[in-house]
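LAB NOTEBOOK - FOLDING QUEUE
OPERATOR: T.R.
BATCH SIZE: 2
PURPOSE: Compare the predicted structure-token outputs for two unrelated chains run back to back under identical settings.
PRIORITY: normal
REVIEWER: second-year student, initials M.K.

ITEM 1
FIELD SEQUENCE / FIELD STRUCTURE:
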Amino acid sequence: MTDTHKSTFHELAEVPPTRIWDGVLARMIHSELITMAIVELGPDTPVPLHQHHNEQLGFVITGSVRFTVDGETRTLGPGGNWRIFADVPHQAESGPDGAVVAEVYSPVRQDWVGLPTAAPSTPGWPAPADQG
């Protein structure tokens, strides 16, 4: 884990992005039992069919995502949320404007711990405060 994970408090911009798939970056905070991630998806970006032993909860912050979970498909916009039980197959694709989503996993996404970080970048959310 990076040095930012040693502190209790963080600004999202301080958390380095990690490339999960092409066009998918996650800024993660890990605790002992949970991973929280703010995930940025580029426009029309697919997340391939996969499953994992972690339970997953999430919601859309900006943009839209078309999810298929265990054979059920739904397009979700801001505020739309999902619950994926352990080992349930799922896939997604962001809409034409991309998406930013918040996700929580339990237990910790060990398969994400130690992935190389991507080039530093400004998070897609929250928007910078007006300077006016």
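ITEM 2
FIELD SEQUENCE / FIELD STRUCTURE:
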Amino acid sequence: MLSMMQPIVVIFGVLICIASTAGFIAPEWLLRNVRHAWQNRQAMTLAVLTRVFLGLALIIAAPGTLYPGALRIIGSLGLVAAIGLPVIGWTRIDNLLAWFQRRPAWLMRLWTLFGVAAGGFIAMAAATHQ
């Protein structure tokens, strides 16, 4: 049975791939924009809510997907990440972004390949139902 959350999960997976591909092509641009957006303290709320929504969507959609166990795990990790952001705090996250911005571009490109693979996996798994 196709869950109503599956199309949402597919869209999120595709958006993750697009953002990660943009980061691969222009890592400095992506980091600059993420840091700029992060200057707005409401970014923490948006990041937490997005992770909670995506985590729940993955868990709800998982039973009808090709890899339900994997999507449940990814959804659970998303919920843990949502809780972790406020615990880590705005300043530490900003410091981490600043640290990443000082690293060579190849490192950011390598990191974005993980995002491309993860987003592609999420989209493919949710688009392919049992």
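REVIEWER COMMENT (ITEM 2): The chain has a mean pLDDT of 90.
FOLLOW-UP: none requested
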